[in-house]
Specification:
By secondary structure, the chain is of the alpha+beta class. The protein has two domains: 126 residues, Beta-Lactamase (2-Layer Sandwich); 162 residues, Heat Shock Protein 90. It contains eleven helices and twelve strands. The strands form three sheets. It has a five-stranded antiparallel β-sheet with strand order 2-1-5-4-3. The chain has a five-stranded mixed β-sheet with strand order 7-9-10-12-11, with helices on both faces. It is elongated. The two termini are 42 Å apart. The N terminus is likely disordered. Bound molecules: adenosine-5'-triphosphate and magnesium ion.
Length: 369
């Protein structure tokens, strides 16, 4: 090990090693914060900024009491680590964020010693909720993939004979002497068409994305214009965009379809006095489809309607799960498939009496311009 380290030191100059250390620090999935002897925050990585929902600019120089104003545990734990120079591990600590949300974290406090004296305390934070969520998503993706494959198989089996049924009904229509029977052939033709449209919608989500440079705000604005035109009432749609979000590489039509399905659901779920908020944000160090992404775009569609009926909530992304009498239950499953085929995902959450649907879309190398 010593030998390997020596080799490393020979291979890199000190500046290169420092740059490397900074790069590693910033790419860690674990939130890391460093406090000096005066209890001032001297370093924080991107995962830390992300977890605390605050930028390093606003956090550096702050004391633990200012970083966690509502969680005195951290001040005590950091002082304690300085005093006793021992590593402390705590699980399931409830930490209140700036937006008043509370999350559970596992924490490690490690004293950094120079000449046997504690100079700094390293605080590592891992969101326990995030781990549980990743496991739930993994299970959900597996089940969804199986459901998608069986739906695809069924779709083929349904579509093939449909053409024959429709054609036979048309031939029969021409041969009928008793025109009062036309009512029945019309039913066969119309219902065959309805079924074919249904199957086509299901299959449309499986087409490969044709990607080009796409501005998500332009997409969202376009979808809002479609929704406003098709709605018979005045819609209260508020917008909160982050203008710094770069262009992404995406299939424009598919992205429109996905956002449209989510926004249409929100409109259907809300009444005149309720509202919808469309919010765009950049997310850092975020896991999507088991892959840690440095940067991602998040599009939230939030409404303060009554939420998804409890009996369908757990299966809402599966095809043919609907809470409406006339609904086909395809909107969310199609949107999820379209976003997943771009390497993204859609999350659903109900909190503070609002329904949150969040599209997360990775910005990778070559994905942003
Ligand atoms: N924002 C929302 N608020 C409340 N319920 C919702 C919301 N979004 C979806 N739902 C519920 O989830 C169900 C499934 O939605 P999904 O879009 O998949 O199908 P659908 O809207 O029923 O039919 P369609 O295929 O026409 O979209 C809806 O029927 C509705 O009950
Ligand atoms: Mg829908």
């Amino acid at each position: 090990m010593k030998h390997a380290l020596k080799e490393c030191n020979n291979k890199y100059t000190m500046t290169q090693l420092e740059e490397r250390a900074v790069r590693i620090f910033d790419h860690l999935a674990t939130a890391v914060l460093l406090f000096d002897e005066k209890l001032h925050l001297v370093s924080i990585n991107s995962a830390g900024e992300n977890l605390l929902s605050l930028s390093s600019k606003r956090l550096l120089g702050k004391t633990p009491g200012e970083v966690w104003p509502n969680t005195p545990f951290f001040t005590d734990a950091i002082k304690n680590s300085f005093q006793f120079a021992t590593t402390r591990i705590e699980r399931g600590i409830e930490m209140q964020l700036i937006n008043q949300n509370t999350i559970k974290v596992d924490c490690i406090f490690t004293p950094l010693l120079i000449d046997e004296v504690t100079k700094e305390i390293l605080v590592e934070l891992v969101s326990a909720d995030a781990f549980v969520r990743v496991m739930q998503e993994f299970n959900q993706e597996t089940v969804q993939k199986a459901a998608k494959e069986s739906v695809q198989g069924m779709a083929h089996e349904i579509k093939n004979p449909l053409g024959g049924i429709r054609g036979a009904a048309q031939l029969m229509e021409k041969e009928l002497d008793d025109k009062s029977l036309l009512e029945y052939t019309n039913i066969i033709i119309n219902e065959s068409d309805r079924l074919r449209n249904f199957v086509d919608r299901m299959m449309a989500a499986n087409t490969h994305p044709v990607k080009s440079e796409t501005n998500i705000h332009e997409i969202v604005e376009y979808v809002v214009s479609i929704i406003s035109a098709e709605s018979s009432r005045n819609l209260n749609i508020q917008k909160d965009y982050d203008p710094s979000i770069p262009s992404i590489f995406a299939d424009r039509e598919q992205l429109i379809q996905a956002v449209l399905n989510l926004l249409r659901n929100a409109v259907q779920a809300t009444k005149e006095d309720e509202s919808i908020l469309i919010r765009t944000r950049i997310q850092r160090q975020i896991t999507i489809q088991n892959k840690l992404n440095r940067l991602a775009v998040q599009i939230d569609i939030i409404d303060n309607g009554p939420g998804i009926p409890a009996e369908i909530e757990s299966g809402v992304f599966y095809p043919m799960v609907t809470g409406h009498a006339g609904g086909t239950g395809l909107g969310l499953s199609i949107a999820q498939q379209l976003i997943q085929s771009h390497g993204g995902k859609i999350n659903y959450e109900r909190k503070e009496n609002c329904t949150y649907f969040s599209i997360l879309f990775p910005i990778e190398h070559g994905n942003a311009k």
